[in-house]
Amino acid sequence: MRTIIIGATAAGTSAAAKAKRTNPDLEITMYEKRDYVSFGACGLPYYVGAYFEDANQMIARTPAAFAKQGIDVQLEHEVTAVDFDAQTVTVLNFTTQQVATEHYDQLMLATGATAIMPPFKNANLKGIHHLRTLADGETLRTLGQSEAVQKVTVIGAGFIGLEIAEEFHRLGKQVQLIQLEDRILPLAFDAELTDIMAQDLVDNGIDLHLAEAVQGFAGDTQVATVITDKGQYATDLVIVATGIRPNTQFVDDDRLKRLANGAIIVDQSGHTSIDHVYAAGDNATVINSVTGQPMYSPLATGANKLGRIVGTNLGGQSAQLPGMLNSAGVQLVTLEAGRTGLTEAEAKTAGIDYKSVVIHDKNQTDYYPGQAAITVKLIYRKENHVLIGGQVIGAKGAVLRVDVLATAIQAQMTTEQLGLLDLVYAPPFARTWDALNVAGNVAH
Question: By the number of CB atoms within 10 A of the CB, which of 140, 207, 348, 357 ranks highest?
Fold first, then answer.
């Protein structure tokens, strides 16, 4: 049984390892166009921020480790086309420039995504970067240590934009963050929380520009100025974090069902609309646990979990991923925030009759050092109070409380059950009634 996996990052490598363990007789080949595998891009902002020295710590497994398991990894090989009828892929070897056609019995598409560069004027100037690859991380880490770089502009206030802005701020740079929308993280959090996030950035010296459109850049060969619809700003470095695009353009077959952004639609087994073809990772969807519908959630958690499910199925067994909640967290300057399930906007789009509650509480007792404000938002079905979404922001201990909410949503708990849930109490960690209990009890 010839199994080909295109892409050797989180989803592809998880699938390959699980498939081989499930069925040791499988013949598995992974094609990867880069010269490394199993790369964890989530660590990049913290590598740039010099929290750790060895970039290899972001690489979970080497090609040699896969080879020892009996998995053939072909680095610097790009699959440029797929023929679903003939069950073949066209592969370009970067080293020899030779092109080969390879047959498969089953195929997995795990090609990830690419950072988007909007049509900014003079975007080819030096000093304009993304943060997506290992090379990006190496470059920005070096620039972060440079005395010549003092003014840093980050375009886009999503998760990556916020994380890299915070890291450059911590490195002592003057950071300006420019966001097209009128809120940061508008797709992930509701306004009650993003207002608190924005204030944390501003209060701690990050120059935040909301509802402002970048038009282009100016400079001789090196970027020196950012030009927007509201002004011009001097800069030494620009990081563009305006989103990603699934790498699915190389598949030219309308039978492969995709979302409008190109993400491949899969079911709970990771199977696509084409027989014997699976997909997982940043190039594919996952099933939303609340709505039961495909959603684009380019997170390492979903990539690894669905990759493992695909591996089980490639190995000849049967498995399904119950669903994902798009659970995510972000570190700001002094605060941290997390979310899971649906936002209010997502609940409205899904046609769910819902209610919500926001409470402002404390993370722990006042007589133990470290008490701080914490804000919790719950979103729940109006008819039966079943939880469908939750968001938390505060100082220490805020984000990990989201794990409780994710569990509660997955278990279809009600707000009343959350209110009486037996959560940990000890003065350094919580109050007798944890903030989550309080939110559950206030909801009605």
Answer: 140
Mean pLDDT of 155-166: 97
Is 42 one of the annotated active-site residues of the chain?
Answer: yes
Instruction: Quote the tokens at residue 390.
Output: 């939750």
- Residue appearing with tokens 């900014």: 120
Q: Please, which contacts does 366-370 make with residues 24 or more away whose CB atoms are closer than 8 Å?
A: 367/427, 368/427, 368/428, 370/395, 370/396, 370/428
Residue labelled with tokens 């053939």? 72
Structure letter (DSSP) for residue 391 = E
Quickly list DSSP for 34-94.
SS--SB-GGGHHHHHTTS-S-GGGGB---HHHHHHHTEEEEETEEEEEEETTTTEEEEEET
* 61 pLDDT above the threshold of 90: no
How far apart CA 227 and CA 234 sit, in angstroms, is 9
Q: DSSP letters of 286-338? A: EEBTTT-SEE----HHHHHHHHHHHHHHHTT-------B---EEEE-SS-EEE
> Mind listing the pLDDT tens digit for each residue in 283-307?
999 999 999 999 999 999 999 999 9
Active-site residue, selected from the candidate residues 1, 42, 92, 191: 42
What is the rounded distance in angstroms from the CA atom of residue 373 to the CA atom of residue 123?
42
- Separation CA 264–CA 257 (nearest Å): 6
